[in-house]
């Protein structure tokens, strides 16, 4: 029998790798097993078409916790983020569109074209959101407190959160309550009048959810995306050098530097369980590897129903985990282009295109896109968040050529023909995206050298994201904090002793942030289970 | 009033922020854009182009050029091979640093020296009977620095130099479309990069060729402000900031020796007499009083101080250059040194500084207290002594073929 590890981490997504790095740094004997041939999970770069590197799934970074960069020395291992300066919203009919810049005065002048009032309120809004984000930061950087508990430690962490709330003052506290209950569109209505400006702002509230911008609770998700804390100071989003896989590679290199072992092309079938305790894992090929603890970086659904299995779970827990909402609603289309896709020929230069480009001319546009999805169809005119990272990071494509990444919503997993039908729809879905873009970039067809369509079905089948949910579970209020993934097991533990979780299906949730991996490792080390 | 460099017709067109500074009597762009982070990021992700014409530049020729330079410079320049370059400093006879710069050997008896301060008079006064001729080419030669990971690709697209094999701190001459220039693999960013030297007449030809070759590689104009962040990350000291030239210092306290500046590695003591040798030999034997170090300023401590005021943490935009006291770990009232410049390091996500510190506290890992201003209050946070070089990517020295 081969050696016994202190910890086996199932899944080499960035959270799994971070978890491994922290455990290995503490001197533990760690093994990471990844099913695919590449590391990174949903934070992955792949040369799908020769010469062009796609960030196949996630494409921008903002939530990654800066203290993890410092604690794991990630910069030395290649972690490298280039911030984006612009956010562009092209508009039909050859309009100049709306571009928001790092330079506040420039943004103000751009917004004033649509509403003078909004242009001035914009700065004020950012100030309030910064305060809110400060609160959110307190929440993300600690394990979620357990509200039902009378353990004094739990109380103190609740109090700490309470204190932050109190420090907000009555006005902001009121604002916070609104954030928790309103729809993102309604919340923005409190501030702004321009339907154009509100378009791209409101969509932040629906990313990765099967909700519309007018659905209650989406205002909170908007905040989750506002937290982008780049450089330790609150900043916008950025590109990872070499694609988002660069983040995962840096995490893997850090883990290896501390002595962790990482294997790819290894498919874990399930966790070995004896008397309610995990003793290791069993691979799809039947091989067994023993370990003191196992950490699953898979989504809650897979962890509970496949890695543990219903036989090993109490009925009520199985029921609860089955209720955990995944409902994937988005897809990705990646393009290799022979030249620059110019989204606004009226503007000078290309600086306006070096950030993200949001196809959402107004608030109603997304709501209409949602209407179609409600009836089991993908949106013919979807919301698309586009980036052309090769304009900023030339290593991604041959000189003069470009990669264009398109995040598309809505593409419901549960399509009316049934999810297995998605592969047959992929071409049509890709066409819908390309045709939508064509309204702004008339020559797009002639630029396309290669197109990769990633449907929600692919997200499930290739990337292991059940129902294609990009965050391993919707970021809706009832699935956050002490309820993520289910109450009673929100602290990275599971009903199986020695089986832990670390993925974005745990607190604080989705995005390339590293928190799940970090907080889970710190909890494991604190309890001295290994 | 400053004058314009030969590149000014182009740089002024690209300078949307109108933010010019006086650098050595020339107009130099402090930043080209109001939001100037991207001028720094270019050094680390693509390529930043800087007009470095204001550097003082000298051609030193003659049969005795090698001997002459070796006598004035702490490093044995006669060892320099043809086309090699070196970073070095020169001292007065007390072993106090006058300036630092690069020396390149362009021929058996031909050297090219760059300096931060005007140096013609200092060098000339030691020629005496030697066969040495010094020509000040500061105003007849100009230069561009192209720094960053894509700099090699850009140059390969505009000239015929064999850059795949050109090593760190070596030089080459090359031809481009209708002009000739010299390339040295040197720079002030601690990254892969080159400096391009050319006669004033051909300045715009060079600029246009580099700029157009750079378009597919995300080339950007970068100003002094961005350069300052990069050089602090790389632990590169600056005359007038980390130290004062002994020719300008008003008191002995203001002067520094190479050892104190972390330049001890370049002092070749055991050879023919050179300026400052005696004093430096004594210091090498008896030890130095001061050391130049990097300081890693504790970020969570700073966050906490701001939190008390209900604020998110804040750092100065870009690099700063002013003196900040550093205190002992145990006794916060005992000052043991001072930071000379610092920056938030975007690459490392750390708040870092370069500092002069008493030798007893110079060991990496030593814990100290660092003064910060938080909402109008003087406070201290914990900090750790580090070697000056915080950032040193492999690509800086990489070669693609032998
Ligand atoms: C299309 C898309 C776009 C996104 N865009 C962004 C964005 O722009 N910015 C952002 O911050 N976030 C974005 N996200 C979310 C973000 O990418 C994820 O939240 C994050 O990458 C999840 O990381 P993780 O480590 O928690 O899990 P995952 O990355 O899901 O890691 C799980 C790993 O487990 C592996 N695995 C599965 N089953 C097995 C098995 N049986 N045996 C072994 N290994 C197995 C998988 O292959 C995978 O590598 C996006 C996600 C998607 C899908």
Provide structural commentary.
The complex is a heterodimer of chains A (530) and B (402). With 530 residues, chain A is α/β, with parallel strands linked by helices. Chain A folds into three domains: 4-82 and 241-324 and 476-527, 3-Layer(bba) Sandwich (FAD/NAD(P)-binding domain); 115-232, no CATH class; 330-410 and 412-454. Helix content of chain A is 35%, strand content 18%. Chain A is built from 17 helices and 18 strands. Chain A has helices at 14-25, 66-71, 104-112, 116-140, 152-167, 169-181, 184-189, 195-203, 218-226, 245-257, 300-309, 315-323, 363-374, 422-438, 444-447, 456-461, 515-526, and strands at 4-10, 30-33, 45-49, 52-55, 81-83, 86-89, 98-101, 238-240, 261-263, 268-274, 277-283, 288-296, 330-337, 356-359, 383-387, 402-409, 448-454, 499-501. In chain A, strands 1, 2, 9, 10, 11, 12 and 18 form a seven-stranded mixed sheet that branches. In chain A, strands 7-6-14-15-16-13-17 form a seven-stranded mixed sheet, sandwiched between helices. In chain A, helix 1 (14-25) links the parallel strand 1 (4-10) and strand 2 (30-33). In chain A, helix 6 (169-181) crosses helix 9 and helix 8 crosses helix 13. The two termini of chain A are 21 Å apart. Residues 229-234 of chain A have low confidence and may be disordered. Chain B is 19% helix and 32% strand. In chain B, a hairpin with a 5-residue loop joins strand 5 (85-91) and strand 6 (97-107). With 402 residues, chain B is α+β, with helices and mostly antiparallel strands. Chain B is built from nine helices and 19 strands. In chain B, the strands form four sheets. A six-stranded mixed sheet of chain B has the order 10-11-12-9-3-13. A six-stranded antiparallel β-barrel of chain B has the order 14-17-16-15-18-19. Among the domains of chain B are: 8-55 and 138-222, Probable tRNA modification gtpase trme, domain 1 (Gyrase A, domain 2, 2-Layer Sandwich); 57-137 and 257-286, Alpha-Beta Plaits. Classes of the chains: A alpha/beta (530), B alpha+beta (402). Chain A binds chain B through residues 66-67, 69-70, 75, 80, 82-83, 85, 101-103, 106, 130, 134, 167, 231-234, 241, 391-395, 399-400, and chain B through 34-35, 37-38, 41, 44-46, 149-150, 153, 157, 216-218, 299-300, 303, 310, 312-315, 344, 346-350, 391. The site of flavin-adenine dinucleotide has 39 residues of chain A, from helix 1.
């Amino acid at each position: 029998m081969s050696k016994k590890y202190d910890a086996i981490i199932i899944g080499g997504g960035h959270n799994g790798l971070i978890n491994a790095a922290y455990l290995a740094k503490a001197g533990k004997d760690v093994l990471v097993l990844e099913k695919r041939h590449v590391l990174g999970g949903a934070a992955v770069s792949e040369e799908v078409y020769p010469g062009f590197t796609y960030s196949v799934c996630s494409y921008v970074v903002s939530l990654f916790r800066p203290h993890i960069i410092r604690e794991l020395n990630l910069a030395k291992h290649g972690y490298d983020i280039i911030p984006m300066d612009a956010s562009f919203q092209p508009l039909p009919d050859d309009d100049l569109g709306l571009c928001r810049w790092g330079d506040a005065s420039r943004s103000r002048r751009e917004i004033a074209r649509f509403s003078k009032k909004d242009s001035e309120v914009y700065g004020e809004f950012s100030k309030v959101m910064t305060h809110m984000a400060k609160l959110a930061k307190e929440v993300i950087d600690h394990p979620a407190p357990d509200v039902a508990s009378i353990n004094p430690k739990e109380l103190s962490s609740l109090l700490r959160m309470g204190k932050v709330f109190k420090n907000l003052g009555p006005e902001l506290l009121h604002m916070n309550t609104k954030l928790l209950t309103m729809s993102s569109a309604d919340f923005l209505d409190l501030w702004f009048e321009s339907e154009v400006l509100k378009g791209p702002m409101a969509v932040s509230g629906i990313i990765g959810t099967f909700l519309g911008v007018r659905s209650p609770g989406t205002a909170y998700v908007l905040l989750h995306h506002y937290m982008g804390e780049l450089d330790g100071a609150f900043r916008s989003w950025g590109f990872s050098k070499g694609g988002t896989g660069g983040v995962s590679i840096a995490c893997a290199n850090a883990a290896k530097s501390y002595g962790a072992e990482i294997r790819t092309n290894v498919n874990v079938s399930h966790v070995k369980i004896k008397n309610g305790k995990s003793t290791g894992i069993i691979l799809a090929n039947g091989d067994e590897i023993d370990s003191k603890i196992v950490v699953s970086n898979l989504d809650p659904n897979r962890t509970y129903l496949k890695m543990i299995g219903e036989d090993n779970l109490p009925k009520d827990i199985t029921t609860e985990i089955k209720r955990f909402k995944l409902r994937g609603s988005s897809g990705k289309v990646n393009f290799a282009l022979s030249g620059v896709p110019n989204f606004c020929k009226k503007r000078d230069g290309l600086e306006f295109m070096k950030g993200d480009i949001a196809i959402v001319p107004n608030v109603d546009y997304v709501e209409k896109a949602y209407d179609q999805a409600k009836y089991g169809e993908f949106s013919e005119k979807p919301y698309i968040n586009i980036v052309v990272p090769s304009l900023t990071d030339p290593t991604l494509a041959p000189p003069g050529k470009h990669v264009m990444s398109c995040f598309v919503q809505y593409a419901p997993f549960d399509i009316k023909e049934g999810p297995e039908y998605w592969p047959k729809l992929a071409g049509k879905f890709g066409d819908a995206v390309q045709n939508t873009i064509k309204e702004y970039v008339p020559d797009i067809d002639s630029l396309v050298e290669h197109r990769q369509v990633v449907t929600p079905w692919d997200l499930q089948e290739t990337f292991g994201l059940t129902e294609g949910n990009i965050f391993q579970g919707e970021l809706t209020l009832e699935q956050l904090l002490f309820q993520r993934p289910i109450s009673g097991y929100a602290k990275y533990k599971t009903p199986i002793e020695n089986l832990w979780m670390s993925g974005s299906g745990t607190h604080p949730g989705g995005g390339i942030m590293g928190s799940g991996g970090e907080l889970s490792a710190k909890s494991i080390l604190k309890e001295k289970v290994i | 009033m400053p004058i314009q460099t030969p590149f000014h017709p182009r740089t002024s067109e690209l300078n949307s922020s109108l933010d010019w500074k006086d650098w050595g009597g020339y107009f130099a762009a402090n930043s080209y854009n109001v939001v100037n982070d991207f001028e720094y990021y270019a050094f680390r992700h693509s390529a930043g182009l800087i007009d470095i014409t204001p550097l003082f530049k000298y051609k030193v020729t003659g049969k005795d050029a090698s001997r002459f330079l070796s006598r004035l410079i702490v490093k044995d320049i006669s060892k320099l091979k043809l086309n090699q370059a070196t970073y070095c400093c020169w001292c007065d006879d007390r072993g106090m640093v006058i300036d630092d710069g690069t020396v390149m050997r362009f021929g058996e008896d031909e050297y090219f020296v760059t300096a931060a301060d005007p140096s013609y008079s200092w060098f000339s006064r030691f020629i005496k009977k030697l066969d040495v001729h010094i020509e000040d080419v500061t105003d007849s030669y100009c230069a561009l620095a192209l720094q960053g990971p894509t700099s090699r690709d850009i140059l390969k697209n505009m000239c015929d130099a064999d850059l795949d094999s050109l090593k760190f701190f070596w030089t080459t001459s090359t031809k481009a479309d209708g002009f000739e220039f010299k390339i040295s693999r040197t720079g002030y960013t601690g990254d892969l990069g080159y400096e391009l030297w050319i006669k004033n007449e051909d300045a715009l030809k060079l600029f246009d060729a580099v700029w157009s070759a750079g378009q597919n590689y995300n080339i950007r104009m970068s100003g002094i402000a961005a350069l300052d962040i990069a050089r602090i990350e790389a632990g590169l000291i600056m005359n007038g900031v980390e130290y004062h030239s002994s020719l300008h210092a008003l008191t002995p306290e203001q002067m520094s020796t190479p050892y104190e500046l972390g330049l001890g590695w370049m002092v070749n003591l055991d050879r023919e007499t050179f300026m400052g040798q005696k004093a430096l030999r004594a210091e090498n034997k008896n030890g130095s009083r001061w050391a130049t170090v990097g300081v890693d300023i504790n970020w969570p401590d700073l966050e906490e101080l701001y939190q008390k005021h209900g604020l998110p943490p804040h750092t100065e935009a870009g690099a700063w250059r002013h003196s900040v006291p550093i205190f002992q770990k145990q006794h916060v009232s005992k000052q043991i040194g001072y930071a000379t410049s610092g920056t938030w390091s975007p690459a490392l996500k750390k708040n870092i500084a370069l500092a002069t510190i008493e030798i007893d506290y110079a060991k990496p890992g030593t814990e100290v207290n660092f003064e910060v201003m938080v909402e109008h209050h003087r406070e201290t946070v914990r900090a750790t002594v580090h070697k000056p070089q915080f950032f040193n990517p492999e690509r800086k020295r990489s070669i693609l073929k032998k």
